[in-house]
Amino acid sequence: xxxxxxxxxxxxxxxxxxxxxxxxxxxxxxxxxxxxxxxxxxxxxxxxxxxxxxxxxxxxxxxxxxxxxxxxxxxxxxxxxxxxxxxxxxxxxxxxxxxxxxxxxxxxxxxxxxxxxxxxxxxxxxxxxxxxxxxxxxxxxxxxxxxxxxxxxxxxxxxxxxxxxxxxxxxxxxxxxxxxxxxxxxxxxxxxxxxxxxxxxxxxxxxxxxxxxxxxxxxxxxxxxxxxxxxxxxxxxxxxxxxxxxxxxxxxxxxxxxxxxxxxxxxxxxxxxxxxxxxxxxxxxxxxxxxxxxxxxxxxxxxxxxxxxxxxxxxxxxxxxxxxxxxxxxxxx
Length: 333
Prior knowledge:
16 strands, 7 helices
């Protein structure tokens, strides 16, 4: 059975003399130029009834164009029935509220049980294929032990448009990403910008570090709440900080906050030297910190421009129960 989809087109007047791949890219917004070039080289494109194998083939105005699109190849990751909290979904994208503990993308040591596996099951039959492979379009990630909002493309066109927004970091569009972070101590000043380049640690490849010549990274922060130190009246032991990303580097908030001396509570990678501070907390807060099993970081705000309609989409997520409990306990310490 032939499951190929056939698309018939006519080259417009402005296509006269243009390369075939460029003409098709202008006519088929849902396909990337690289994908169309691959289809041409596979012998799946015809011009005037002849199969054309060369992407640079010149097109004449009025010529009949035919593109045969094969069905998406099965995704390498397997679909798995993993519960998802879906905040918004339409034909082009899906926004989920990811719990802590869920890895976003399959990789070494995490080939199953990821967000991608869950999305392949949730959106089965609704993913027309990105690059010819049935898969969701991941345009940004959240660390395994961070919770919160994440947008995923369902089509190739949406994937390109959303990727462009994230690459632009909100300079020209409405993109916003903001996190709530519980940190040790209180940053001073209470509102500021951390502009410190980040790169892979030379001592440990699983860590990131601030170092000259690494990738540009900027985090804007402001203190929302300060929590008292029960052992030192008048002083604060921890705080709740809003962090807004201007760039999106791996572990950016975690490393930047540690860099200024205020690492995240529960961060076993960048705050190990601060474990003893938990002993100064009240009993309820201390028990919560000791059993947290995650860094206290939540992606609570996401604003994107819809990749098709252009509408500004704004989503907010409340603190998950374990972080809301920590917040109340810290305030009552």
